[in-house]
Design a protein that fits this description.
The chain has no helices and six strands. With 87 residues, the protein is mostly beta strands. The protein has one domain. A six-stranded antiparallel beta sheet has the order 1-6-3-4-5-2, with no helix packed on it. It starts with a strand and ends in an 8-residue tail after the last strand.
């Protein structure tokens, strides 16, 4: 919807262990990256998680906390300055 991006869904984490600002292998694709240069939180909730993801304007995803092998939901919203991806 314009320059607003919504992310949401269900996830199953396959590992446990503390993440202290660890970079994820996954990235936010071009066309959906946050415009802000500060970290944009993507909340992870439910299950037995103590975990949050941060999206960066470069597309990097940073992990903080422990996912505890849980099933969980996630949600986030941010503004992008990227051009709309080609269909």
């Amino acid at each position: 919807m314009g320059d607003i991006c919504f992310a949401g869904g269900n996830v199953k984490f396959n590992q446990s262990g503390e993440n202290n600002y660890t970079q994820a292998r996954e990235t936010i694709p071009v066309g959906y990256r946050p415009a802000e240069t500060s970290n944009v939180p993507i909340a992870v909730f439910g299950g037995n998680t103590t975990f949050i993801l941060y999206g960066e304007h470069t597309g990097r995803v940073i992990m903080l906390g422990n996912p505890n092998n849980a099933y969980a939901g996630c949600t986030g919203v941010w503004r992008t300055a990227d051009p709309m991806p080609a269909a």
